[in-house]
Design a protein that fits this description.
Helix content: 40-55%
Organism: Actinocrispum wychmicini
GO molecular function, one term: heme binding
Radius of gyration: 22 Å
Number of strands: 15
Oligomer: single chain
Strand order of the largest sheet: 1-3-4-5-11-8-6
CATH architecture of one domain: Orthogonal Bundle
InterPro entries: Cyt_P450 (IPR001128), Cyt_P450_CS (IPR017972), Cyt_P450_E_grp-I (IPR002401), Cyt_P450_sf (IPR036396), Cytochrome_P450_monoxygenase (IPR050121)
Cofactor: heme
Family: Belongs to the cytochrome P450 family.
Bound molecules: protoporphyrin IX containing FE
Amino acid sequence: MSTSTAAHMPGATRFDEWLLNKHWRRTTLAAPPAGSRLSAVPGDGGIPLIGHSLEALRLGLDFGLKRYETYGPVSWMRAFGVRIVGVAGGDATQVVLANKDKTFAQQGWTYFIGPFFRRGLMLLDFDEHMFHRRLMQQAFTRPRLTGYLEHVGSAAGDGVRSWQPGTFLVYPAMKRLTLDIASRVFMASELDGQQAALNKAFVDTVRAGTSMIRFAMPGGRWNAGLRGRQVLEDFFRRNVPAKRSSDSNDLFAGLCHARDDNGDSFTDDDVVNHMIFLMMAAHDTSTITTTAAAYYLGQHPEWQDRVRRECAAAGPGPLDIDALEGLRDLELVIKESLRLVAPVPSMARKTVRDTEVLGHYIPANTMVALSPWVNQMIPEFWTEPDRFDPDRFNDIRHEEKSHRYAWMPFGGGAHKCIGMHFGMLEVKTLLHQMLTRYQWSVPTDYRVRWDSTALPAPADGLPVVLERL
Ligand code: HEM
């Protein structure tokens, strides 16, 4: 077994390196049924009581890559109070996401974020999920997206224009801006002084999912998450009656009015639950993607110039859907940023019956974690995976086609991101506004550290030097 470094965690301590390279006693998850010809899942429990929670939170990607290198595509560990089977690499991922006999359920997510995002679309399963997804799809048609983009364009323009040159923290500014965008797109409204409270509620609900202490304790993350959920529920519930009787073209109204061919529709509770999940799903992921792209463009002025030329040629904006889709170089940059920093670095499932992945026996009721970020960084699929090289996605190289699940920032299978297209358009709009108004840079020796305590976020907020053009 080789020694690894915390290559993706600048400022890693000796303790981090020790944790990463510690050899735990290798054991198996469960004995396969006699005569089954299956093999047991290899792995280890890690530190008594807390298992591998610390490494997963502190080391994120480096920890995932180390597990893959040590145990291969299917391994088990203890973390966050449960035993988890980690699945990585293309073929193993494909088995879980194809989910042929409905074995892998979203209950895996329920364990982590259920109390905070209960009955959001991603937490529903099988037939019920299909029913809700079909209804929700009505809110993501091209004409709908065209309408949303008007709000995105105006909010992005207002927000980016107000930024002050000098040393500038990208991540918090982007987070404020994407919440503003989400509130305008989803509710055609501004939050009238409630933005700070709602933003805090979102942050608390998201962070609660990876809490080590998984019950309500005063001052604890879990408690803060539950309080955050309540704030969001009260907010959306208060607004449902007005939306039901409005004819506005925002997503909130869209969910209130959605009907399928049988005349079925969402209940008030459904609408509240979906809105809370959608706001979170849209807001954090777009923030991370745009921040990561800003980081790499700050590090690579040649790419910044290249995409700025393309953006300038498209006009000052706000751009419509066709113009945004035409920004091909910018798309390469965004795809590469999504590869290097997967906004949803792992995806949870739970087995509802005994099953197997690549010949490894996994009993019923086992947590399973898929690893998009690992798949996106392994040399089987990518040349020099650590290098920022957007051209790897161009029409000649198409490295992402090396495996169906080599590049999977939006997941795959029945739960593949429903907001994928909208998310790309939003990120393009934000970057187009930035690139046509400013140039920015980071010191040549600067390396951002992605904090993995919840979804990845730059530990220092990503300071750049921003100059008006
Ligand atoms: C760059 C931005 C985004 C990324 C990287 C992203 C990533 C993901 C991923 C990985 C999943 C699958 C999770 C799983 O299978 O366990 C997912 C699902 C989902 N996403 Fe996104 N997302 C993004 C933007 C958005 C936006 C803008 C919206 C809404 C407007 C959205 C709404 C959803 C919903 C509702 C689901 C659940 C789908 C289902 O279960 O059927 N996402 N997203």
